[in-house]
Protein 1
Amino acid sequence: MLFIDFRQHVLAVVRQVLADKGLTDADYMNVALEAPKEESHGDLATNAAMVLAKKVGMAPKALAEMLLEGLKVHEAVEAVEIAGPGFINFRLKTSALIGQGVAATAAGGAYGTLKAADTRKAMVEYVSINPTGPIHVGHGRNAVFGDAIANVLEKAGFPVWREYLVNDSGNQINVLVRSLHARYMQLFGHDVAVPDNGYPGEYLIEVAEKLKARDGDKWVSETDEQVLLRELRSFAVETCLDLIKQDIQTLGIEFDRYFSEFAMHQTDRMAEVVAILRNKGLVNEGTLPPPKGKEIADYKPVELTLFKATEFGLAEDQAIYNRAGMPTYFGQDIAYHYDKLQRGYELLVTVIGIDQTGAFKPLAKAIEALTGRGDVYHPVAYEMVKVMRNGEPVKLSKRAGNIVLLSDVLEEVGTDAFRFTMLTVKPTTTLVFDLAHAVAKTMDNPVFYVQYAHARLCAVERQREELGIPALDAAKLDVATMKISAEARSVLREIMLYPALIEQAARSLEPHRLTFYAQSLAAAIHRWYAAEKWLDSADVRATHERLAVAFAARTVLADVLKLCGVNAPTSM
RNA sequence: GCGCCCGUAGCUCAGUGGAUAGAGCAUCAGCCUUCUAAGCUGUUGGUCGCAGGUUCGAUUCCUGCUGGGCGCGCCA
């Protein structure tokens, strides 16, 4: 690919020219090749002279002069100039951009696919909502982020496994069963309230009805809670998980595996990892100080099994088992991540809500202790989604009855609009999702803008056929002598930059970059569309040249939308 | 009290140790005898929260302050 090849050229020349300056690999780390903000500054630019000037003991512009001759020597280069404080700007030959476009069309979905420099097996764990009820909008953000991250990592060359952790073994499942049983009893006319700390959502009535349909009144007279917990656990979990899976399916997401924590605890994973950490001197028995945030009247310290997070500079150790001897969330997390490592995954991405990030620092330290590496665990924390309705904020709470269900929102705005909107904001920004706007399908939502560009590209090909213009045979194009408009050239420039986008989005785990690229490419396409008529029966050659650009654009636009999980419609 | 995130145009948000800080919406003014006007062109709009520091250069990195959001047993 042109961008990748050209960057190799730049780095090779810089290293060659400065070979006797005693620079290290680390010195070259910050040398970058990127597109200037102003298109008039050129197609690509490198900061090499500015970054290395001090190390070499030269002024940036003088160093740039020194590099210039070598950098010029590349078949794609039309002109090189030094500008501003020491940028080296490249203007590429239009024929090189066209060649890249034609190649992109030929490669189809493979264009922009990178060979990862490291070939670690990656696992993206996302959604992982407790199977105690349906998904709300905030969970939808998790799902969309995780899926796009997985897509982009795959595109960047990593083998990727998508996993959902089903947290089906904690106390919340007991709470779920109690709540379900209360709803079940209500169906039989018994005045039983949902427990105070239970799940009051009305969806449990539906679950209870399913239980009634399956078992009749079998559990009405059952008074032994242990029996209920044992007998109804898997029914409750599976039925609730089905609710979640419906939404996952609507979003177009497929997991490679739903990993059951309950099943994991039937194995020795937890004991194994605790033993390993204990052997490393990182687990011992001890007591924790009282919690900071609030007063606890009858607090009594007790000896617990602790992970010594303080060894890593963290404020407090973390309990692995609670005073009842059951695994804590943190303990389960260690065991689960140990399991991931045992299965051979070495790049562990977890998409997690910002309100759930309390334990990820000690978990990161535990994984570091297990692997000896600090670059294995990558939590992606995303901020809350603030849902507005008629100017009033809608509070998101799993416990409260008035949660905004993802399925409702998807029905209102459609999967494409939802996914695209969720990807227009970086993870750390609190996202304000205005239902009124989204429902109205105004241009507040740029997904239509991007999809429309794709539809136009497809419509033109249909029109070509109707006009009786022969289909394009890319092999017959004379790339070297093609003449295209400035607007078409801008489209090709965006296409040339696609591999850089993939690389950056994968490295930063920031999939919102995809939608910004998509909008940028779509804007170039719309501008070009408005600037000149593409189809001309009187000039088949020129028409074919423009179609070649259009097909390249269609290829890349469809691919980036696919990474976003958004449809690329052929007509609108 | 502590920890994490955020503060950029009227609104919703991008962006960067460097070139004149951007997009969409909203405002105002234009463009359909021409492949889909869900589009295009132009216009208005900024003390990048405040104050220091680091350096050739800071909106970007560091510190303090301030405003907002979230979290703070061995819970879930």
Note: The radius of gyration of chain A is 29 Å.
Protein 2
Amino acid sequence: MPLPYHQRTHNCGELRAQHIGQQVLLAGWVANHRDHKGMVFVDLRDRYGMTQLRFGDETPRVVLEEARRLRSEWCICVRGTVAHRGPGNVSPRFFTGELPTGEIEVVVQELEVLSESPPPPFDISDYTTAHEDIRLEHRYLDLRRPGLQRNFLIRHRVAKTLRDYFDAHGFVELETPFLTKSTPEGARDFLVPSRLHPGKFFALPQSPQLFKQLFMVSGFDRYVQIVRCFRDEDLRADRQPEFTQLDLEMSFVQAENVMAMAEGAIAAVFAAVLNYEIPRPIPRLSYREALDRYGIDRPDTRFGLELHDVSALAGQTEFAPFRQALEGGGVVKAIVAPDPGGKVLTRKTIDGLVEELRGIGAPGLPYTKVVTDEQGQLKVETGIAKHLGSVAPSLLDALSARPGDVVWFMPGPYASVCKYLAHLRQRLGQLLQLIPQGQWNFLWVIDFPLLEWDEQERRWSSVHHPFTAPHDADLELLFSDDSSRWGQIRSKAYDLVLNGIELGGGSIRIHRAEVQRRVFHVLGINDDEAQQKFGFLLQALRYGPPPHGGLAFGLDRIVMMLTGAASLRDVIAFPKTQRGTCPLTGAPSSVTEKQLAELFIRTIPPSK
RNA sequence: GGGGACGUAGCUCAAUUGGUUAGAGUACCGGACUGUCGAUCCGGUGGUUGCGGGUUCGAGUCCCGUCGUCCUCGCCA
């Protein structure tokens, strides 16, 4: 029986006890049907929620029979009357808050099947256990699930909140090109062949970095954009080849101004989505201190387990790995893990951790346990205890160790020691359940080094990017010919970290030509190369550029945090698999010889 | 490019040292059922064990190759 589906009176999430007695017209999908022959229940689902339909005594016989034919995911429209379910029949999920419509039901008088559906390849509900590949192949069905829909409603709210916030602060949303010039620095580019220019290619932008600086030269003063970025690198759970950035740039500012503006934006988002007020200002930590204390430039500060430099005391031991590390200019650092009762850090667990560390390149992981002797004095036992000898007491004192603690040591070059202990710290935090849930620990990491030595390429390279301004106080180092000190130059770069995840970062840019020239020189980029790669920016920077700086947030990661999603794929509507393919469309795919010929392209099969 | 886990019914999984006709739950189909709500009960259909090769009297199981998915290191200015 045809029904005017275009005149829905309500959605499937809004009917309550107050609507009892009203005649309503609903449309949606059959989420579930329970057939009792003389009475049929259907859970009708749309993006707003779920409402129970009842086909029973008040339903015309022919409509009841039609209802018994209904199957999952059919699209239907019904007319009926809102009724209380009756005492004892109210949904248990109404009382838990899971099903706000659970007190009422719609007693159906008329039904129209708008379209039928074969049985779906997997259960369309938040209970589904289907693997991701099958879900991605039928992503349009996967996206019917309430949990995923919630993620995208949050994503929308985040974007809307950000646009409103920046609009209110005088920012202009401006677009930048997707077909642009390849920049060999940084990540691999996705290339797009030019039909009009045989043998030449556009590149999809890794970020709108250069263009937003041009906007500053143009005088737009405050630019913002929610923009897609592309990087042809290997994927991870938190990394997609195309991802979305909230990108902004401001003129006549210093780092403080950009960070304050960014804090306000993030605070607005957390308030809008979670009704959570971020304590501000967000704490700051220098890069140096972050590495010293946590071994990583994006520490999870929800728990302690900080790293201790024990080089001085380690040097007094006869333990060969310690001595070798120190003689080679390295350090010995330690991490102390409390394990009252010794229940968690068993021999097996410890061996597992050692193996795990070995997996990321660590040579070994000496440790020892702290116990008390007969006199109640602290001493070390097992592991490398005997190698610590007489140094043990001062070591335990320096580490404020307590009975039951396990102490882990890592000797070696500073950078590797940091890397391995940072990993160990995170794992210990999980194992010992030291990471409080439901806590949001924001952190600015500032004063990044401007340059780092690239051992493979045997040259200095930018930590952030070549347009990042050095600290005014470190300009002298930059212009010094003593290249051994270039690693000490601090930059005006900043990263925002949340619970150990990097949400975004930015910097104040160089706006003085001679500083930019010097940075290129230090990076080993000569004038010709600079002109070839970034000529248009350098030209622009000749014409009265304002001092400027900005920042970019990974929008997907922010939404991931807000939704609690385990993977970026759960907050991107049509994501790629880990090998960069799309099971839904089959992309990437072969193209015809004709298409290739038109683009003057010949492909070379990969060699075995 | 390296390391690891996995691939068996539409879906999620099981199958003893290599041993009879590869099972279960769910979905699906049929039946019963007027207060269910991840309905229940009864019955039934459903398999190229990812693909290719090898070892063996015999392979889901062992070996080689290959494809795919996920995690991870490298990589991601």
Note: The CA atoms of residues 256 and 508 of chain A lie 10 Å apart.
